[in-house]
Design brief:
Layout lengths: L1 H11 L12 H9 L12 H9 L12 H4 L4 H13 L7 E9 L5 E7 L5 E4 L5 E4 H14 L17 H12 L5 E9 L5 E7 L2 E9 L2 E6 H6 L9 H11 L10 E10 L2 E8 L5 E7 L2 E7 L29
Antiparallel strand pairs: 1-2, 2-3, 3-4, 5-6, 6-7, 7-8, 9-10, 10-11, 11-12
Length: 327
């Protein structure tokens, strides 16, 4: 009993923190809103026309008919320009292919590049130069379209080699130690540290969110994400129940058909889960460490562990019988 009280005290102080995520639509929109097609003259705006008239110029400068065609850079020139721009930026990209998307309002070139060692990017030769990760652009677009299918999601990456987001993120997930079959993957925002955060869905089991911090992947399974008020798009309740069902095999709770799961917290002894079983009034607390279940406690007797079960409350104690009257 002393050991259980120790666990209860430790469990009461457990907290799980998840960074908040948010996309900045302004930067994404800015990348796409002012793009003029490569090799074409940008059309004079109404404001520019008025300014020209105020300066005493009665008409716009003439443009040669063949100028757009003559100014079109060759693929080799585009690749050279993109590589030169990438070399001036803090972007981890070995440019293997590039296309010129156009120019921005200041006539600065906008490139989409394929990176041999990383996800693709959109690079803008502005002052200072700007970069947009293709995975982040695609993730932002997907989130906006979930809210409004007709949303204007701004500039997106279009090169075929940059359409492999699930494959790229799935490879990173394997590097991070994820052993499941990744069936969906997407960038979902940035953490409070400014790092891109990715979500991966797993076939039949709990998924993950992952973030690279100081060169190392940090994983949070979706059960943990949900426990602190977050959500995972690519993981179902049934997949989370299946994950805990597998952890109960070979334990005293192996006959439990898991219906609901709650992460209670963790300490040096492992992470504590509450599981509600299909059988009426039956539930357990499972202590899991190094992905193996170390101990299970029936909810009926586990009131001192982390505050006890809440999905399967312990049965009410019958009131003590009144003492027999004495003469």
């Amino acid at each position: 009993m002393a050991n259980l009280k120790f666990l209860a005290a430790a469990g009461a102080a457990l907290t799980l923190a998840l960074p908040s995520f948010a996309f900045s639509a302004t930067a994404v929109a800015a990348a796409g809103a002012s793009v003029a097609p490569a090799g074409q003259e940008r059309q004079e705006t109404e404001a520019e026309r008025r300014e020209r008239i105020e300066r005493g110029e009665d008409r716009a400068p003439r443009r040669g008919r063949g100028r757009a065609r003559d100014s079109q850079p060759s693929p080799e020139q585009v690749l050279e320009g993109a590589r030169a721009l990438a070399a001036t930026m803090a972007v981890d990209c070995q440019v293997s292919d590039a296309t010129l998307l156009g120019v921005d309002a200041e006539r600065k070139s906008i490139y989409e590049v394929v990176c041999a060692n990383n996800a693709g990017h959109v690079l803008i030769a502005s002052e200072p130069p700007q970069q947009f990760n293709c995975l982040e652009l695609a993730g932002s677009a997907a989130i906006q379209r979930e809210r409004d299918p007709a949303a204007d999601v701004g500039q997106q990456c279009t090169l075929p080699a940059n359409q492999n987001g699930q494959e790229v993120i799935g490879g990173w997930a394997r590097e991070a130690g994820v052993a499941c079959t990744v069936d969906e993957a997407r960038a979902v925002g940035r953490s409070t540290l400014g790092n891109l955060v990715y979500e991966v869905g797993c076939a039949g089991v709990d998924g993950y969110r992952m973030e690279k911090i100081d060169g190392q992947w940090n994983l949070q399974d979706c059960l943990q994400v949900v426990s602190v008020g977050g959500s995972c798009r690519f993981t179902t309740v049934a997949e989370q129940n299946s994950t805990l069902q597998a952890k109960l095999v070979g334990t005293d709770a192996s006959d439990c058909a898991v219906q609901q799961v709650r992460v209670m917290g963790q300490n040096a002894n492992g992470r504590f889960y509450e599981v509600k079983c299909a059988a009426e009034g039956v539930g357990y607390i499972a202590r899991v460490k190094d992905d193996a279940t170390q101990q299970v406690y029936a909810c009926a007797t586990a009131q001192t562990i982390g505050g006890g079960c809440t999905l399967t409350p312990a049965p009410a104690v019958a009131p003590a019988a009144a003492p027999a009257p004495t003469e």
